[in-house]
Design a protein that fits this description.
By secondary structure, this protein is mostly beta strands. 8% of the residues lie in helices and 47% in strands. It has a 15-stranded parallel beta sheet that branches. A hairpin with a 5-residue loop joins strand 6 and strand 7.
């Protein structure tokens, strides 16, 4: 089934200061306007630190550049590494020699090992926790497979898995409406932080005062074929503090929200060429796209917006040197977009 169990040194830690429950994310909608969304999450976030000296990051012109870290960011990373080294532990792990699938079902049981479709875990969090603590994926991969049903708990990931950077979360490719992630108000369906990488596809996200995908601090989130249901006072996808998200495939919007895409503090969105975004009924999205503080939101060629006339609200806001590259796409909305304080939209 999988390779031999072996011992491997892992740098791990529980730092409560980095847990979702300890953090609030402030987004600004314009001069003098500010809102705060406070996330509720687990107490402490176990994470594996990796020191980043430099990384490839596309500038607004598409050239390679090294991300300049501020003194605060450097101190933050040093803190992660210091705590990690201070709490290093020897972990006994299964060495996967193929792609490992963890099964999750709303009627499952988190005391299980998640490895059988007939005996699944109940939450994505438990499946990811087992992947994080018990496996070395150097010769395989990580997949979390969601059975049909409604999931009332989201997934929080921090750091990286051992042996691989990426874990995939897969819903129902034949019917994305059969898998619904509906986290509690004030939380995120997928909260990806501190160097984590994840790919999520084929499911529905909905809920009041939630964020569908929240990425923070050097993460990469690949998102494909998602339906965004009603999200009053919520945001579909929000990237902050040098986080990146890639959107691929077909997306649908079926409810109101504060914003569809928001990027802040050197974050980046890439909406791939050929992506389609459809709307089936009139909805209000206060700001379809927001780009702040040297962030970049770029749309590839031939992106399609179906029934965009159903969307009311402002097309975009680009502030504080935020960039929005539409590549000729007319963003939906009944109020013209705004660019100020060095922001650009073209």
């Amino acid at each position: 089934m999988f390779g031999n169990k072996h011992e491997r040194i892992e740098l791990s830690e529980d730092v409560a200061a980095y847990s979702v429950g300890q953090m609030s994310s402030e987004f600004r909608t314009g001069p003098g306007e500010a809102g705060t969304i406070v996330f509720n999450g687990p107490e402490g976030a176990s994470q594996r630190a990796v020191a980043i000296i430099s990384m490839r990051w596309p500038s607004c012109g598409g050239d390679k550049m090294t991300v300049a870290m501020t003194a605060a960011v450097i101190r933050h990373l040093i803190l992660i590494v210091a705590f990690t080294l201070a709490t290093s532990a020897r972990a006994e792990r299964f060495e996967a020699d193929y792609s490992v699938v963890f099964f999750v079902n709303p009627s499952g049981d988190d005391s299980r090992d998640c490895r059988s479709e007939a005996a699944p875990c109940r939450t994505m969090q438990q499946a990811y926790r087992r992947a994080r603590r018990e496996y070395d994926f150097a010769k395989g991969g990580c997949t979390i497979k969601l059975a049909d049903g409604v999931y009332t708990d989201g997934l929080t990931t921090t750091g990286t898995l051992v042996g691989t950077h990426l874990c995939q979360v897969i819903g129902n490719p034949a019917n994305r409406e059969a898998v619904i992630v509906q986290p509690p108000p004030g939380s995120a369906a997928f909260d990806i932080q501190d160097l984590a990488m994840i790919s999520v596809m084929d499911l529905t996200i909905q809920g009041e005062r939630i964020i569908g995908f929240y990425g923070r601090q050097f993460v990469i989130v690949d998102i494909a074929r998602i339906k965004f249901g009603p999200m009053p006072d919520g945001i579909a996808v929000s990237m902050d503090h040098q986080a990146g998200a890639n959107l691929v495939g077909h997306f649908s919007i079926d409810g109101e929200m504060v914003a569809f895409l928001t990027a802040n503090r050197l974050s980046r969105f890439h909406v791939a060429g050929g992506v389609s975004i459809s709307v089936k009924k009139p909805v209000n999205i206060h700001y379809f796209v927001m780009s702040y503080q040297n962030s970049l939101v770029e749309f590839g060629g031939e992106v399609q917006l179906k029934n965009s006339q159903f969307i009311s609200g402002q097309q975009y806001r680009a502030y504080q040197h935020g960039i929005i590259n539409t590549n000729g796409l007319v963003l939906p909305g009944t109020i013209a977009g705004q660019a100020a304080l060095g922001g650009q939209a073209y």
